[in-house]
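User: I'm preparing a small set of examples for a lab meeting where we compare how different chains pack in three dimensions. I only have the primary sequence for this one, and I'd like the structure in token form so I can line it up with the others. Please keep the answer compact; I'll paste it straight into my notes.
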Amino acid sequence: MPQIYSVTNIPPEVLAYGMAKYSRSRRPLRDNLRELSEDKAAQFLNTFYFDYGHASIADLAHVALAIEDISLFAAMEIVDEPLWDGQERSTRYQNFDRAPYYRPPNAGGFYDERTQELLELYHGTLASSQALQREWYPRPPEMDETAYGRVIRARALDIARYCLPLNMLTSVGQITSARTLEQQIGRLLASPLAEVQEIAGHMKAAATQDAPFDPEGPSSTSPQPLLPTLVKYARADQYRLALGQLLRPLAVQAPGVVGEPVDLITEADPQDAQIAHLLYPFGHGSYRQYLGQASRMSSGEKRDLLDSVFALRGDHDDWPRLMRQAPLVFDLTMDVGAFRDFNRHRRVSKAVQDLSLDMSYALPAPLAGTDPGQSLEDGLRAYYARLQAAKPGDVLPYLFPLAHKRRVLMSMDIAEAAYIIELRSRSQGHFSYRSLAWDMYRALERKKPEWARYIRVTPPEIFNPFQR
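Assistant: Understood. Below is the structure token output for the 468-residue chain.
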């Protein structure tokens, strides 16, 4: 008869050790755990994880981290991890009016002035949007005023978030395996931004050095860090840095242009597609531009480039994440607010471009043709003119609002495309990504109607303002 039981109150590395013993012992997990100690676990993990390279052992140790008081921009970098589970403070339900913001050490008066300018725009847009929502959607008789007020406020926040600067402080909670955490820290340490590097250092310390938070208070024994062994060697991802130096000069040859919000590519030469994926995040061109750039290269030039890519690969480096592909390739242009939602989808291969002034900004569709909409457009136009004139250097990403557009390449299979389209097109979704999901469906319908017919998409005209 099967023996099935749960375990609790076991340090993550000890539990990983106990489960790893299944491959080397016939004994039950409960017997292994009774005799294990953290010292024995560390000795085992040092041998089999680091010396022998059994990386799957680190998938058995999971840890929860709270990452608080970080910028919205840094949070996007943290979340950009394929095997990641977590939550972030929502701009759709929480009011960021007058909230604190991240200030880089080299920020000057211009940085503070622009931040306050966007916050004033946020404050005014939130107030005018709430008034409009009450005018557009009167309270149904069966809905009480408290519930109605929450819905109206949330709808207004959907609009006002376009004005939020990316330096606003937020919080992220995540649960990952030790292997994912190690890779995540290495990627973040390779960031050009000091804030992201600092966060990565604190994440490593929280896992390997600091005692974990215990809601029941400190115990009689000295609490130990949760992952003292498996993450201790996390370093900046040198392969990632080297790839940037190699590929960026080629990628910037494609001029950045703002095209259609959705471009679906289903057929491309496999080698050209690999090269286009490699170039995409290091420039601001479209995926079709990079496919064209690859197709114009001779077979020898393609081979030499790929030889250079793999010559940089270290002994413990995986294949570049950018070379993971799937049949459907969506080149998507969206506002950063929508990107934060799309960024949470995991069953995709993703390449994200840096934020650039060339990409401009989006405006909230519900305000089109209204006086508040015109005021917002005038405010953002003046704001961007000041950014263009000042060129504020490496603090620029923090001064972009959530309205700013960015480009992301997402490769997926039909099942994931259906999931994203069905989820993001629902009536309760944000209007920005609802529009994007609908465009994805229409692109798929044109190119693969035999697949699209099974997708349960919600057309944009189906909308219940009181459903959240």
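A couple of notes for your slides: DSSP finds 18 helices and seven strands in the chain. The domain at 238-358+404-452 is CATH 3.30.1360 (Gyrase A; domain 2).

User: Perfect, thanks.
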